[in-house]
Amino acid sequence: MLTRPAPPYPAVSASHRATAEAVLAVLLPHHRSPDGHRHTAPGAFGAQHRQIAPAVAAGKPIRFTLPGFPCKSPNPAKVLGPLPDEGERLSLRFLDGLCARIAAVHPPGARVVICSDGHVFSDLVQVPDPHIDAYGDALRALIRDEGLAHLDVFDLRAVHGDLPYDEKRAQVHARWAPTLEALRAQTRSDPETRRLYQGITRFLVEDTAAFPGTRSALQRACRARAYGVIQRSRAWGGLIAEHHPGAVRLSIHPQPCGSAKFGIRLLDAPDVWMTPWHACVFRHADGRRELMRRADAERLGRLVLRRGRPSHFEAR
Asked: What is the pTM of this model?
């Protein structure tokens, strides 16, 4: 029997379809793509349209889920310390403002659930769970103190009760993660998966501040851990989908047009893979803010404190 392909857009009224396209128009200037270009044609984002349209038709807020905001890099040459700083503050304010702009075209508005995934990868990125707890608590406090009413935080503390984190990670992995063999095969055959694997490997190498072996041994270890990170990331995605059905999936990683995930750029950076938790904010003399490694920012400017804690650098 022949089956028809899925329509590019769901069967909703013309007015609802127009509203869904208007919501997409708010998102598109911030799309993060692998080629670094900004794609602004709504027709290239049918997956997101199909996710947005049901909430529009039902007159309900649009829910977005964004895995990320895990913990700070353990490499002191990249970040200011273990707690959220100006990079997270600006990123969270951007996301909250995005929801407010969506409310201007869809009055029920929107919410973003920050799916903080540090505990999912703790053993692989070699950041202790207590440090990740402190980062997550500070992230919630930042949202509260800034009055960011459109944001929520969801993390591994919300599932599997009071089990130790190691057991929670094992359960999430067992239920949702792809096999290592399947993932290796996909890395060889799929360019996007291969780019993700290479990007994560690079981050793991950079985040290792001290390693007792050779550079080649470090790279081998990080390549093995990168597969684990992708497995856990897929597993976390499955858990998020189960806990937040119907939400529009955002991603801090670059995503091509047509992907089920919408890659979103939080802050300007010279590298499409750079995030606030792998860098710090540098404020240029003209007011422009950019993410860069701490070691680079220190050479260009002076450190600024906020409430007694390192916040960002600014031009001298």
From this structure: 0.91
Concatenate the DSSP letters of all residues of 6-53 into one string: PPSS-S--HHHHHHHHHHHHHHGGGB--TTSPPP--GGG-HHHHHHHH
Residue 251: DSSP 8-state:
E
Report the C-alpha gap between 155 and 159 in whole angstroms. 8
C-beta separation of 159 from 110 below 8 A: no
**Size of the chain in residues:** 316
**Under 8 Å between Cβ of 95 and 112:** yes
Task: Please enumerate in sequence order all residues whose Cβ is within 8 A of that of 255, keeping only pairs 6 or more positions apart, or say none.
Answer: 31, 32, 33, 34, 261, 262, 263
Strand partners, 152: 113
The pLDDT tens digits for 113-146 are: 999 999 999 999 999 999 999 999 999 999 999 9
Chain centre distance of CA 224: 22
Instruction: State how far the Cα of 73 lies from the Cα of 206, in Å rounded to an integer.
Output: 9
- Measured between alpha carbons, how far is 35 from 71 in angstroms, rounded to an integer? 27
Assess contact for 130 and 136: CB atoms under 8 A. Answer: no
Residue 73 CA to residue 138 CA, distance in Å, equals: 16
